[in-house]
Amino acid sequence: MRPLALASLIANVGLIVTGAAVRLTKSGLGCPTWPRCTEDSYTTTPEMGIHGVIEFGNRLLTFVLVALAFACFAAALATRRRALIVLSVAVALGIPGQGVVGGITVLTDLNPWVVGLHFILSVALIAGCYALWRRAGEGDGEPVRLVPAPIRHLAWITTTVSFAVIAAGVVVTGSGPHAGDANAKRNGLDPATVSQIHADLVFLLIGLSVALWFALRAVNAPPTAIRAAVVLIAVELGQGVIGFVQYFTNLPVLLVAAHMLGSGLVWTSTLAVLWSLRERPVLLATPPTAPLDDLHPAEPVSAA
After folding, report:
1. Could you give the C-alpha distances from 31 to 40, 128, 183, 198, in angstroms and in order?
2. 247-263: per-residue pLDDT in tens?
3. I need a labelling partner for 2 at 20 to 30 A (CA). Which of 10, 24, 171, 259 fits?
């Protein structure tokens, strides 16, 4: 179960990278319609060139995600664990939904708001895959809180801001030059203004993450939680450096692709911190209670 769930998680993060390749190579309309690639073919044709190959390749990844999702569902059924079955069904249903939204982006000529929704759905799928992977390694007992409530609240606030950073980044992307096609429209917002809002949220996220790390150390939280916070801060700092460099170097495509991959890593690292603050024990089967007479056999009664 866990290897399959991890493979699904990695593949969904990989979808962000292949989506970045489509957009950054201006291949967003390499297949100009959907669900077919052309009016007469479900696959790309030689006349469509490299852009058609890149866009069609991104579509093919959906079938890999579907196969992994169904494999996870089958494995979850084998475990007979309700939580795993529910999570695997949610992921399995989300992937076709993601494909439909991807098709709408093509049919709307890469409307930046629809493209942004396409990315946000990837973030949701990553959360579902991560939850499936972590739950597969846990028991089904009641969750045990490993830190006080105020720290858990701080972790949830950090998670919310992490999502806000990603959402703001989507808006920045919709205002920038990498539209996926030379004729695709932009959202009309001022790139400098939305970039500043995005940067402000990044500073807030890093500050919250550092505060969370100090708080975890102060309450002697489990080492796994402290390590998860350190990893989150490191990933955020790396992502921030890439973001600033790409902004001041006019958004070179390689740095933009690395930044999009980094968004998936920031989100996954954020989820890791959140999950490290509690654990679920394995439920142990209660042995049947033996009859009292079996435990204490009656002494024979003397005839005397």
Report:
1. 12, 29, 15, 32
2. 889 888 889 889 999 99
3. 259
